[in-house]
Amino acid sequence: EQAIDVKKPQSEMETLEGEVAEMQKQLKLAGENREKENEEFQQVVEDQRKTQKLLKDALDVLGKFYKKEALIQVHAVHAGPESPDGFKDYKANDKSFGVLSMLQKLIADSKAMEAESLRAEKSAQKAYEAFSADTTASVEKKEASVSEKKAEKARLEKSLVRTRQGREGAEDALENLANTKAGLHESCDFLMQNFEARQAARSEEMDSVKKAKAILSGATFAEIQLD
Fold first, then answer.
1. In this structure, are residues 132 and 28 in contact, taking their beta carbons and an 8 Å threshold?
2. Which residues form a coiled coil (predicted)?
3. How many helical (H) and strand (E) elements, i.e. helices and strands, does the chain have?
4. Closest CA to 31 of 117, 118, 132, 120
């Protein structure tokens, strides 16, 4: 059971480390994409502003040209003979109005594209910053969990070592007890097997002592034999 407990935090730690690596990869990729998008945005804005300047310059030049042409034609109309019946007067600003209106529309479209690019850039930057903040917070949280799992694994491994040492000590103690028991059993068997012989020998020793004491007391051989 201890071994399973040690494997569990190890497995969880590896899973967390894999998730952290993937999030860091996605964060790096998002940063690279954001950088490319910003470069494209800068290029679009630069192009549109150049376009607007060119169109404004053209509008200014053509505006001055058509204004001058209109003044010349108006002067010619007032100075020349009357137009024949059925002939419509030439309006000097008809042609210029169409060209100038077209240029003004192109300028307006370019400004609109620039404004839309700016809105898209702000939105993309805001989304990237939110993603970056959320991902960074998640990475930090998972890294903290990895540290906790490492500490848990170290604690369980230490506990496992103590348990193994305790088990080995208990096994040694049991082995010693078994050896002691075997020794005692052999000793008891020996004592039981030699008990009667030792009792007989002891009885003979006691008889010899009694006889010796009787002799010392002056008893005759016959008296000793009767005892």
1. no
2. 6-40
3. 3, 0
4. 132
Can you read off the two tokens belonging to residue 217?
Answer: 């007391």
Averaged pLDDT for residues 95-108? 87
Name the burial class of residue 43, with classes exposed (0-12), middle (13-18) and buried (19+) by CB atoms within 10 angstroms of its CB: exposed
**How many whole angstroms separate alpha carbon 205 and alpha carbon 163?**
58
DSSP code of residue 91: -
8 Å CB contact between 218 and 201? no
Question: What are the structural domains, with CATH classification, of the chain?
Answer: 2-82+89-173 (1.10.287)
- DSSP H or E stretch at residue 90: none
In this predicted structure, the answer to whether residue 51 has a pLDDT above a threshold of 60 is yes
Q: Are 36 and 62 in contact (CB under 8 A)?
A: no
171 vs 152: CA distance, rounded Å: 28
